[in-house]
Amino acid sequence: MGIVRRGWLQPPWEFREASLFTAIAVFFGFILQYAASGQGVPRLYLPVNAIVLGLFALLVLGIGLVFRENTTVKWFGGIPLGLCLIVAIAVLSLIGGVFPQGEVKPGSIWALLGLNQIFSSWPFALTVLLFLANLGISLSWKLVPFSFKNIQFILFHAGFWIALSCGIFGAPDLQRLVVPVDEGKEINLGYAMESNIPQKLPFSIFLKDFTLEEYPLQMFLYDPQIGQPIQERSKAPVLVHKGLKASWDGVDVEVLDLLPFALPDKDGRLHPADKTAGIPFVKVKITTPAGSKEEWITTGSPFVETRDAQVGDVYVGIRPGTPKAFRSVVTVKGDNGQQLNATLEVNHPIDFGGWKLYQMGYDEKAGRWSQLSLIEAIRDPWLPAVYLGFFMIMAGNLLFFWNGIKQKEVAS
Amino acid sequence: MIFDFTTAALAAMACWSAGSLLSFFVRKTPALKLPAFLLSFAGTLVMVAFIASYWSMLDRPPLRTLGETRLWYAALIPLVGFLVEYRWKIAWLKYYCMGLASFFLVINLNHPDVFDKTLMPALQSPWFIPHVVVYLVGYVLLAASSVTAVHNVSLQLRSKSNANGESVSHYLALLGFVLLSFGLIFGALWAKEAWGHYWTWDPKETWAFLSWLAYLGYLHAYRYKIEKGKLQWYLALSFIVLLVCWFGVNYLPSAQNSVHTYTQS
Ligand code: HEM
ipTM, 2 decimals? Predict the structure, then answer.
């Protein structure tokens, strides 16, 4: 590095000017946010956002190519400004990564500066816009004249440009609606998060059947004084199976018998029952220094009382296992007559007429007896563009990995 | 189970210590080189065998709790040390690596984590393993990059030249960046399938993005005319961001409703 002392703003511009510019931009963003009294950036919907983004892209590429030799434009598309903007985005994200995002008291300084919704605030939007401009200009120089030598650069930078710009400009078009549907019923309404006003969907969902599969029952020793289970040394939940031997301080429990689906009759005798009504019963043998006893205990259900075994001041109890899988068998009917029978499950969404339908939840209080399935309907018209960006970055990544290794050979 | 882990952990640490001890004498007695390596390597094999048996016992990949990810680090970090010695003839890194691996095992010995067989439905996805494994390997490489950078900084302070060490930390960071990029995108693709959207600025996502930005910044600074020596400081310190992302997010105020927090006992 040459030791040429350069005054402020004296060309060629570099890091000092870039940091000053970035700091002013972020500061200006906070002023804007404050002036808009905590309102975020205006939301543009299709096709307006697509047109604005298209014009922005043309403007950036145009400036980059037409003013290629201009020193200010060179600085504007250079690494120093890019680095400062990366730092600015990192600092703003840091705010979002440290402080809880979401509702706060309106009128508080947090709300006025947008710190509680940093990712849709003016300073963040402004920084991202400048970042896209900087990245776009540097891209224009590598795109024209085109050369295969630059392919790795282009895949990375254009991929990121596309993914970031489409993700952010397209965000307002993302629709996420929760559709609560009861077994045997049909519904064509969805609710946006934190809203009670239903919106009409272009299709209806009929829920034929909802099923919940659970992991094995869990057993624990419960102290009503502390109000929580006493943990076994390994801290693992004790999963119940026939023959299980578990022990807590001074209390040994053995599982003698396990009826997965049973019901008691009038006299309290247990009989096997079918899967829909029956509940699990476990016969335990409990041994303490004071002696031993055998007893049937059960998780209970909305219809049968829970039964725990008392041992001195504490209780041995069982509870249903955590959910392993839950699925909804549905028929989806489009307004245009299109129809689809499908099973929805977590991690296995289905596509229907431009929407994706997800198994989201159920009535957790009712557990296995839930009659309600929560389905989420999502539409994101910008997804293909964002994914195109992702795949370009991954392709660039593979090249980078390959070239990185090759450079290593040369370096040694 | 706990007993098995104790045995495996102690055996692995015994192998690493004995291997390291032998390595000290390699300079005087070159014939010891192979036995020293085999002994050190055996420690990693023990961990790999333990993870395999643990995996089959659990009926799910042991990648869910922090304690489980520590098992993988313990198995993989020494491998980086061995590879760097093989490729770059730098011997000291492997001692740090085996030390770090032992440190992870000692944490696990002191905190028998939630050894829970269950796997919530959202984690039952073909993306689960690639996403976590790519990140694991990425973190391992970046950890090694930082350790190397710290070593380089200490050499600089004593005015010793060390071009080889500087290129090692650089290439480890470069490979780590590639894996972070894949991890980030795999995570986004998985999130779309499981939770409905590819990016929600969940605290874990935000921190993963921050660590990626840290290394992105490094790569561009490296390309620009910035002294390579200064960048060693940068690499050494970047690891702090990774550590927050990996361990710290659970403790931040923003983590209240993250879907990513590891199960805590
Ligand atoms: C802020 C705007 C950015 C600018 C101005 C910028 C500019 C540059 C420049 C000029 C180079 C050197 C290219 C060469 O020598 O052929 C470069 C390299 C690179 N850039 Fe960017 N970049 C930016 C953002 C990004 C982003 C967002 C990514 C990731 C998706 C990225 C990934 C890379 C990679 C992987 C390299 C190669 C580094 C190496 O070879 O050591 N850059 N960038």
Answer: 0.88
